[in-house]
């Protein structure tokens, strides 16, 4: 009986060891998926730079890098690299009300359905009461505009805003059906002392507004948007290479997203870009579990991307190690279940690198295409003459809406992107065993011997058990 128990224990132990060996080092789409799910959850509040939820996400990534024993690449021997940033924030409630000539409330519009605050240009927080500037009523202080440059974030918009303010405009209604459950904290890094209270309105309510205006009704608009000066933090973990003279390889993804609406509706940003962050952290886990790479690999989670690529810009201008000759592969919106091929997006400022990656993909029969697009963090590198591309699965159907949830992410998408990353790494001096482009997934190098051990031990144990039991 005792012998039987010992043999059983031996068998279980061997089985456990083989399982651990088998599963330890291969790229796990499941792990990438689970991290994505975690960072998409409610407590991270949509990860807007400067917000408490963003700080929680930052801490999560920092702890992950720490657990992998990556070398800190941030300020003062920490993982965090801080930078200043102006971010539009929504802190209190908004409303949009209409009163008749006796001052009686006749209509209160619904936030997120009929209207919503707008953060572009010289948008300010505040309350404006008055009449609508329509037809003959030219002296009113509230206007409906469809002037595009005024309704987007650009220098021309600021100039227009200043002109309107000089003409007595205090609030602006912008028709914007697509913006009532859409967010972008994109902001030119500019501070202003005064501005205009701006809201988007559903086109459905515009005829009614004009009607109310004809009856001399008055309007009251309160918006809660404010631009705050805060701190963003990139999270940087370094896996030091054997040869410090080789230029480093940077793998990156932005972890920030667009936050939440004034009524508390959260934008989880699962595909954009909890997914890229989950993928990055899983890559960090895989590569740090292999033997020391030939060249240094830096894992960087950027903050402030949604505001205007500000984290990556700061990183490139203040790198922890020399970036001369470096290459960056950035991940933004990977893991889409859409079945779209991986897109290699690149900046016109530096396009040869994208051609090279596309050639690698084609030579390995990986479905991929390239697109010119400067709206992700690779652009900050290209602006500074460093080779960089973003790998993306171009599914924009739910971008920056509350519907960008885990339904928008699948393990199969991660696998495809890893296939392309692996093909690229195989052509670079990163791991000596990676140089062979035909080499299997790094996990297979462990999986095959692991499976061998498992089969042999199982057979041996059955043989021994059989002998023992038949003796009893
Ligand atoms: Zn985004």
Describe the protein's architecture and organization.
Residues 15-24 and 435-443 have low confidence and may be disordered. This protein folds into three domains: 1-22 and 445-472; 27-86 and 229-440, 3-Layer(aba) Sandwich (Aminopeptidase), CATH 3.40.630.10; 93-223, Glucose Oxidase, domain 1 (3-Layer(bba) Sandwich). Strands 1, 2, 11, 12, 13, 14, 15, 16 and 17 form a nine-stranded mixed β-sheet that branches. It has a four-stranded antiparallel β-sheet with strand order 4-3-10-6, with no helix packed on it. The chain has a four-stranded mixed β-sheet with strand order 5-9-8-7, with no helix packed on it. Strand 7, helix 4 (155-166) and strand 8 (171-175) form a beta-alpha-beta unit. It has twelve helices and 17 strands. The protein is an alpha/beta fold. Helix 1 packs antiparallel against helix 12 (442-471). The site of zinc ion (ZN) has 3 residues, from loops. Zinc ion (ZN) is lined by residues 272, 306, 400.
Give descriptors for this structure.
35% helix, Aminopeptidase, 3 domains, binds zinc ion, 12 helices, 472 residues, single chain, elongated, 4-stranded antiparallel beta sheet, Glucose Oxidase, domain 1, alpha/beta
Q: What would the principal axes of the Cα set say about the shape?
A: elongated
Mean pLDDT metric: 88
What is the CATH superfamily label of the largest domain?
A: Zn peptidases
CATH architecture of the largest domain: 3-Layer(aba) Sandwich
- What gap, in angstroms, lies between the N and C termini? 9 Å
């Amino acid at each position: 009986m005792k012998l039987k128990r010992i043999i059983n224990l031996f068998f279980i132990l061997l089985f456990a060891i083989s399982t651990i060996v088998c599963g330890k080092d291969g790229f796990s789409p499941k792990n990438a998926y689970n991290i994505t799910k975690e960072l998409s959850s409610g407590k991270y509040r949509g990860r807007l730079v400067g917000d408490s939820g963003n700080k929680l996400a930052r801490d999560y990534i920092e702890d992950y890098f720490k657990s992998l024993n990556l070398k800190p690449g941030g300020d003062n021997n920490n993982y965090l690299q801080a930078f200043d940033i102006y971010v539009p924030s929504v802190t209190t409630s908004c409303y949009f009300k209409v009163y008749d000539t006796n001052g009686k409330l006749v209509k209160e519009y619904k936030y997120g359905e009929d209207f919503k605050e707008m953060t572009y240009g010289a948008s300010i927080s505040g309350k404006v009461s008055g009449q609508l500037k329509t037809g003959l009523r030219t002296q009113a202080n509230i206007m409906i505009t469809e002037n595009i440059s005024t309704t987007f974030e650009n220098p021309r918009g600021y100039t227009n805003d200043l002109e309107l303010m000089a003409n007595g405009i205090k609030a602006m209604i912008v028709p914007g059906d697509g913006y009532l459950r859409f967010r972008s904290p994109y902001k030119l890094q500019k501070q202003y002392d005064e501005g205009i209270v701006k809201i988007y309105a559903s086109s459905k309510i515009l005829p009614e507004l004009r009607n109310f205006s004809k009856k001399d009704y008055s309007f009251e608009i309160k918006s809660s948007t404010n631009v705050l000066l805060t701190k963003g933090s990139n999270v940087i973990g370094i896996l030091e290479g054997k040869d410090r003279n080789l230029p480093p390889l940077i793998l990156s993804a932005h972890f920030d997203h667009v936050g939440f609406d004034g009524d508390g509706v959260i934008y989880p940003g699962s595909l954009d870009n909890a997914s890229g962050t989950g993928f990055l952290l899983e890559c960090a886990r895989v590569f740090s579990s292999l033997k020391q790479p030939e060249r240094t690999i830096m894992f960087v989670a950027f903050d402030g991307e949604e505001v205007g690529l500000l984290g990556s810009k700061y990183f490139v201008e203040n790198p922890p190690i020399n970036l001369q000759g470096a290459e960056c592969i950035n991940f933004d919106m990977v893991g889409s279940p859409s079945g779209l091929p991986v897109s290699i997006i690149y900046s016109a400022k530096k396009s040869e690198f994208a051609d090279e990656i596309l050639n690698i993909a084609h030579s390995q029969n990986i479905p991929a295409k390239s697109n010119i697009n400067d709206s992700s963090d690779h652009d900050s590198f290209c602006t500074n003459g460093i080779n960089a591309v973003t790998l993306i699965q171009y599914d924009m159907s739910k971008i920056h809406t509350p519907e960008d949830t885990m339904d928008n992410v699948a393990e199969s998408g991660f696998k495809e992107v890893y296939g392309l990353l692996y093909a690229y790494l195989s052509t670079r001096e990163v791991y000596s065993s990676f140089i062979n482009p035909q080499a299997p997934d790094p996990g297979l190098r462990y999986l095959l011997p692991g499976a061998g051990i498992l089969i042999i031990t199982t057979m041996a144990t059955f043989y021994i058990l059989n002998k023992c039991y038949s003796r009893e």
